[in-house]
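ugh ok fine here u go
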Amino acid sequence: MRRYGPAVLLLLSGAAILRISLFSEVYLRYVQPGLRPFLIASGVVLVLLGAVSGWRSARDRANHSHEGHSHAHGPRVALLLAVPALALLLSPPPALGSYSAEREAARYAAQGVGTFPELPAGDPVDLTLGEYTSRAIYDSERSLKGRTVRMTGFVTREENEDDEGDDGTWYLTRLLVSCCAADAAPYRIEIREADAPPADAWVTVTGTWHPKGDLGTDGAWPPVLDATSVKRVAEPRNPYEKR
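structure:
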């Protein structure tokens, strides 16, 4: 079995990559859509390399059998690398959720106070969390005033530092991915006037902007929304925020 270890590892890795990128859209949990062709290509290359490696191992084994001896190839510890490949193949990890969002303090928003383009006519207007955050914190024209907005994200909760549990504060959250899940950073909007759904639940929230703090200051962070409707929804095909 050790003789075929490298071939098995290559085949498993290639199959796992193809499983999430070619035969499903699970890859969207980890990378941007534009990287799909590269994932598929790398998966195909790994499968081909594994097949060639397996064929050469079988050929060498046949030759050694005729000569009356054989040799083991590669350390057994290398086979441990097959474990993450199997996990990705059989049960891919979920997209990043509230735990990752709460560990990251990075804020992606427009820099500096200024004006923004007018919002589309009609209410509610659909916004990304990034768009709402930028306008709430930096828009000198206060374009959110008097408008009803609608956004989709997952639920994160606020924990008290004195270990007495949460204080009822909750946030609509979405992670922004520039390249892959490793660089994910959250947008977070405090939701008021509505009970909190379970953590990590996906919801669509409709409501109105609640002014807070001075523009462009820490006092305006995080932005606030007074909710008029909170609806449970399925996780989107692409769970990450669009830039």
